[in-house]
Structures are given as structure tokens and as C-alpha cells.
Write a structure and sequence with these properties.
two-stranded antiparallel sheet, 593 residues, single chain, symporter activity, mainly alpha, Growth Hormone, Chain: A, two-stranded antiparallel ribbon
Length: 593
């Protein structure tokens, strides 16, 4: 029986139909770039200090010295959460005493910001932080806001795969677009932080569901050669375009409610795409809806000015694919055998730890020195060459090696930041951007890699579940940024170490480069990655010898993963990891002291 790619090969690789699907699905991702990172400006925290009531009877000298000062980056700034006790300084002012000359300010009693805060408007006119005073004792709500958004993304990742596998790619794609746009609009009318965050959770659910389903739909419609371009230069680059437009909007619209309104408008413009984007023929075939699938292929041939066969899907082949509909799939099918379970567990780790690095670096841009709008733009801009590099690497090199390579590069660069003196801020920013370049490249490749590993029946579910695991990392990421308040290099040490670790794990994946997409779970079980793990651990498998090609593969594995050579490699790797951990421990101890 011919596979789908062979049956539809007459359509060509890059005709008008493929270009239309490519650009329309990519364009539908632009609003995701807005909503995914909008929290950087919606929840921005400007400089602030305790408010002193205008009714307080204070001289100008005491009013100017009513808030203690502290050193920050070599300059004196007002403390954010403390002021001198108002009752005391009013008495001193009434007695005609001068601060610093007659009264020792260091010995003066302090109190909290009982009358609220005054926020600087140099960067933001208003944010949810200034609106609801999410500072000092309430500052824990700011990272929680971001984490709750990613909780919604987590739930959306879990639900979107199963819903689109059951109800179709197209219906769920546009339903999640409506959820993302509609609830973003409702956020404008939030009356408190609780209402804003509940709506933000729902926006997160729609945001990731739209992204994942659009990716899967394009992967299943487009041909093998275009598939890589779509998943890198298409989906990912258009996400980066939306991300780059975000600081542009935020620069000119500095009120959070008006900014949110402006960011919801592009979602409305995606409504007409319903009449141009078709359902996935692969999914229709898996549901035995062969006539609908053939109708889509016939229309595609007409758009490409190609004469299609009278019958694209032969009736005999349709009967052979009949069991495909009867085979119900659930999330537990991703763990059906030891081979599939091993691949799934490693995929979950790969997505989660890569996500920690990507989102922590993205959310940390306001904390970098310089203009936050420009830093955010550079953080988005660096993603474009990262996606281009991912595309070029995926075209010619094995998946697991290139993913491991860029992860090693990104993690190593982040670990170097701890060696940069505090005065060389520009160098730290440059290394952070290079680190994001490597991690972003790896992130772009994960969608292709995961989609190629799993068969059509569970492909969308697999991408959804593994993407769900990445959201666990994104939920944690805001607190990596939060650690920077205690030690400026600690977030980079943690991110760099985790990135290098997952780069090592990636080397144990099976290779999918140059293989036809599997259609059934049985075809997936033929992936040889599990045998490689068994060979490394010294175990054997019952089906280790089936065909001459597999015998050769087994001999190759045994040759390279046994004997003194492998023992020396393991011993060297173990010693190297121990030395790295010991070095990081001594450095942290030095920083704390």
C-alpha cells in the first residue's frame, strides 16, 4: 500500500496551493507572538517608592528625605518598600530640625508604605502592577501572573491534541483563535488582579492550542521538503514577527488596557482564513472520510493547474486502511510499549528543560540594563537567525546531533556569564542573546523532531503532550527570573546547566532524518533508538535480529558502545560532570560569601 506522500506526489512540492497554505497558517501565528510575551509589558514593574501624603505637614527638606535610600548599580535610589516613620519626621519638621544635620537618618525608625506608592512613569504609564499595587508584600503576584498564564498554556497543550485528533484540525484551530482573541478582549475590563489572571489562564489555553494545531495542520498538508521550512521559517518566524511587533506597540501605547486592545485586533483579522484553509487530508483518511480527503486533493490540483487522477485514493487501499478508523487511540498509547514509553519520557524532558531556558531568557529582558523596549526587540530579533539556522541544519544534518549541538552551545554561553564582571553589562547582554540563539534554534527543531517520531493517529496528541511538558518549564521560568533579585548570575547558572544536561540526553534519541512519516503505532515501534539504549545499558531485546539492516545496526551499536573504549568514554564523561558540578558549587559559595 502506498503511503500518503506517494499518493499525493503529483501535486508537486511548492505550487500555489502549498504556498497559500504555508503563508496563511504562518500568518495565523502572529497573534501568538503578541499574547505569548505581552506579560512583559502588561505586568512591567516601574521604579517606585512609598507615597508621602500631600496633607502631611513637612518642610521641603524633610519631604525630600522622607524615604531611605539604597545603592543600586552604583547609584543611590529610593527604597521601594520602606519610609521613615511619618509621625516622627512631622515632629522633627515642626521643631525646625534639619535631616542629616540635626537628625541622624540612619537611626531613624522606619515603617511600611502605609499610604501606597508613587510609580515612575518614565517607562510605563500604567501596568497591572501600578493599577493594583503588586509590589513589596504583594510582589509575589507578578511572577504568579505569568505562571498562571502558562498554566493555561499547559492545560491547552493537554486538551488541544486530543480535541483536534477527535474533532479535526481546522475546527479546533479556529475555535482556539476565538478563545484567544475573545478572552484577551475581556481582560481589558478586569476590575481586579484575580479577574485578570483567571481570564489570562483561558487566554493561555487558546494561545498554545492555536499554535500546536496550526503546526500539525501544516505538517500534514505540506510535503516532506516543505515541512521543515514551514516549521522553522514559517510558524516560528511569524511568531517572532509578532514578538518583534510587541515592543513597537508597547512603546507607543504605554497604558496596559489600550495596549491589550491593540493586541487583540489582529486576531479578528484571522476570521476570513476559515474559507481558505482546508482540513487535513491525513486526518480525514484516518477517520475513513476518504471522499472529503479526495475532494481537498482535487481542489489542490486545480489550484496548482495540475491534472489529478480520476481516483486519488484507490478503493482497495481504502479498505486496507479501514482498521485505521476502528483503532481508538488515547494518551496512554504514548506509553504502550517500552520503546514508545522511553521515547515519550525523553521527549517530555527535552521539551520541559528547553522551555525553561527559552522563556526565562525572554521574560528577563526588562531586567537587563538599557531600554526595556529595545532589549525586548533584540530578544525577538535574535530568534529570526536562530530559526534560519535551525532550517539550514535540519535540511542536511541528523536531527539529534544538531539539536544536541545547539543546546550545548546555548548552555555553555549562559555558563560563561558568571565570569563577566558586573561593570561589563553589554557583554552579559550579548552572551544572554547568544544563549537564547542556541536555545531558540533547538526549540524550533523540537516540533519537527517530535512530529517525525510519532505516527499520524497520535502525532497531534504527542506534540500536544510534549508541548504540555514544556509548559511545566515555562511555569517555572518566571521564578528563575525572580532569583536574579538575590544573585544576578544564579539564573544563568541554572539555565546553562539544565541546557547542557538535556543536550546530553538528546544524543540517545532515535534518528528520524530521511525517514517516511509513520502512519501506525506498529511502524513507530521499528524506530531503532530503543535498541541503542538497550545496547548502552547492556541489555538485550527479543526482536533485536529481524533484517540484515538491523543486524548491521546492532553490530554497529555493539562496536561503538561496548568494550574498553566505551568504558573510558563513560568514565571521562562522569569525571567531567563531577568537575563541572564542583566548580559551580565553589562559585556559588564564593558569590554568597
Amino acid at each position: 500500500m502506498r503511503d500518503y506522500d506517494e499518493v499525493t506526489a503529483f501535486l508537486g512540492k511548492w505550487g500555489p496551493f502549498q504556498r497559500l497554505i504555508f503563508f496563511l497558517l504562518s500568518a495565523s501565528i502572529i497573534p501568538n507572538g503578541f499574547n505569548g510575551m505581552s506579560v512583559v509589558f502588561l505586568a512591567g514593574t516601574p521604579e517606585h517608592h512609598c507615597r508621602v501624603p500631600d496633607t502631611a505637614n513637612l518642610s521641603s527638606a524633610w519631604r525630600n528625605h522622607s524615604v531611605p535610600v539604597r545603592l543600586q548599580d552604583g547609584r543611590e535610589v529610593l527604597q521601594s518598600c520602606r519610609r521613615y516613620r511619618l509621625e516622627k519626621i512631622v515632629n522633627f519638621s515642626a521643631l525646625g530640625l534639619e535631616p542629616g544635620r540635626d537628625v541622624d537618618l540612619e537611626q531613624l525608625e522606619q515603617e511600611g508604605c502605609l499610604d501606597g506608592w508613587e510609580f515612575s512613569q518614565d517607562i510605563y504609564l500604567s501596568t497591572i502592577v501600578t493599577e493594583w499595587s503588586l509590589v513589596c508584600e504583594e510582589d509575589w503576584k507578578t511572577p504568579l501572573t505569568t505562571s498562571l498564564f502558562f498554566v493555561g498554556v499547559l492545560l491547552g497543550s493537554f486538551v488541544s491534541g486530543q480535541l483536534s485528533d477527535r474533532f479535526g484540525r481546522k475546527a479546533i484551530l479556529f475555535a482556539t483563535m476565538a478563545v484567544q482573541t475573545g478572552f484577551s478582549f475581556l481582560q481589558i475590563f478586569s476590575v481586579n488582579w484575580e479577574m485578570f489572571t483567571v481570564l489570562f489562564v483561558i487566554v493561555g489555553m487558546g494561545q498554545i492550542s492555536n499554535y500546536v494545531v496550526a503546526f500539525i495542520l501544516g505538517t500534514e498538508i505540506l510535503g516532506k521538503s516543505v515541512r521543515i521550512i514551514f516549521s522553522t521559517l514559517g510558524v516560528c518566524t511569524f511568531f517572532a514577527v509578532g514578538y518583534m511587533l510587541l515592543p513597537l506597540f508597547a512603546y507607543f501605547i504605554r497604558d496596559w488596557r489600550m495596549l491589550l486592545l491593540a493586541l487583540t485586533v489582529p486576531g479578528v483579522l484571522c476570521v476570513p482564513l476559515w474559507w481558505f484553509i482546508p482540513e487535513s487530508p491525513r486526518w480525514l483518511i484516518s477517520q475513513r472520510r476518504f471522499e472529503e480527503a479526495e475532494d481537498i486533493i482535487q481542489k489542490a490540483a486545480k489550484i496548482n493547474n495540475i491534472t489529478a487522477p480520476m481516483v486519488v485514493f484507490d478503493p482497495v487501499e481504502q479498505q486496507e486502511q479501514l482498521p485505521l478508523k476502528q483503532q481508538k487511540v488515547f494518551i496512554l498509547d504514548l506509553f504502550r510499549t517500552r520503546n514508545i514509553a522511553t521515547i515519550t519520557v525523553m521527549s517530555l524532558l527535552l521539551w520541559m528543560l528547553t522551555s525553561v531556558g527559552y522563556f526565562a531568557l525572554s521574560l528577563n529582558t526588562p531586567n537587563l540594563h538599557g531600554d526595556p523596549y529595545l532589549n525586548c526587540f533584540f530578544s525577538a530579533l535574535i530568534e529570526v537567525p536562530a530559526y534560519i539556522a535551525a532550517w539550514l541544519l535540519l535540511r542536511t544534518l541528523p536531527r539529534r546531533y544538531v539539536i544536541a549541538g545547539v543546546l550545548f552551545f546555548g548552555g555553555s554561553v549562559l555558563l560563561l556569564i558568571q565570569l563577566v564582571p558586573a561593570d561589563y553589562n553589554f557583554l552579559s547582554i550579548g552572551l544572554a542573546m547568544l544563549g537564547k540563539f542556541g536555545i531558540t534554534s533547538a526549540f524550533a527543531m523540537l516540533y519537527v523532531f517530535t512530529a517525525e517520531l510519532y505516527p499520524t493517529l497520535v502525532r497531534n496528541m504527542a506534540v500536544g503532550v510534549t508541548s504540555m511538558a514544556s509548559r511545566v518549564g515555562s511555569i517555572i521560568a518566571p521564578y528563575f527570573v525572580y532569583l536574579g533579585a538575590y544573585n544576578r548570575v544564579l539564573p544563568y547558572i541554572l539555565m546553562g546547566s539544565l541546557t547542557v544536561l538535556i543536550g546530553i540526553i538528546t544524543l540517545f534519541f532515535p534518528e528520524s532524518f530521511g525517514r517516511t512519516l509513520p502512519e501506525t503505532l506498529e511502524q513507530m515501534q521499528k524506530v531503532k533508538g530503543y535498541k541503542k539504549l538497550l545496547a548502552i545499558s547492556g541489555k538485550k531485546t527479543n526482536n533485536s535480529v529481524r533484517k540484515p539492516a538491523k543486524v548491521m545496526n546492532k553490530q554497529f551499536i555493539e562496536k561503538n558502545t561496548s568494550g574498553p573504549n566505551m568504558y573510558m568514554k563513560r568514565k571521562y564523561l562522569s569525571t567531567l560532570i563531577k568537575k563541572i558540578c564542583l566548580m559551580q558549587y565553589h562559585f556559588l559559595a564564593y558569590e554568597i560569601v
